[in-house]
Fold each of these.
Amino acid sequence: MTNRESQPTSAVAPMVRASLAKPSAVETPNVPLASFADDLDDKIALTRMRDAQKQREDDMMTAPRMVTKEEASYRYANVREQSCGACAHFSAPGSCTRVIGLIRPVDTCDEWERGTAPMAASETEMPGTGAFLMPSIAASETVRTAVQSEAIARQREGA
């Protein structure tokens, strides 16, 4: 391998142009030196385009395929530790690298993989049961509990 072959293309072009500038570098008097330089520039540009296209093709082959919610069997998660909020593919506030569409942290699908940290416990857990509720149900459960507590307090005051 010659010194020129081991160097990157961007470093070879100036060396070739410099050697073409010497009168003895080209023995064909009918071809202008600028033509050689233009050909070299074209070859460099084509090589870069080919390499970029190959990189795009490689990226497409290694990227995971996005699937619809139906294909992934997207559904409500009964177990918090296996919900989208605890999945490696979930990105807050509501997207996924594998499933197309708005993703809720309380759901799950067949693409689920354990993430680095489980979803934090919140008001979505039904007190004392470990059952997992949707946020709107959890909020209504909180209101119902508050109303019941208030009713019990009134009964005790009146009795």
Note: The first strand starts at residue 75 and ends at 76.
Amino acid sequence: MIGRPIAGFQHLVDGVYVAPNKITVAEWLTHWLAGRQGIAETTLDGYRRDIKRAIEGVGSIRLRDLTPTTLSAFYGELSGRGLAPATVKNTHAALHKAFEDAVRQGILARNPADHVELPDRNRR
């Protein structure tokens, strides 16, 4: 009989294992941003703004502990502060790219920005 996996062993079911680490969101985003080369200066400036905003909001959290729920709450806070929906969307896009790169490098098992719903565009 196959039941639910025992806590801490979900990676065996998923076929993904990432060694535990203590990297924070701020550390990863700073490292990721420093590695952006060969892109337009305006794109880099946008990334800098978005990453700064994210570090202020969720930077102290361990990267491996960041959840879609935490990101949704963060995006809600940004929206609640009156940031334009496009700004929240751009911040999400930058984080999604940074976390996807962490998955590719074996630092994260999954991208916490996947499937996160952004705040309703009509609410401000």
Note: The mean pLDDT is 86.
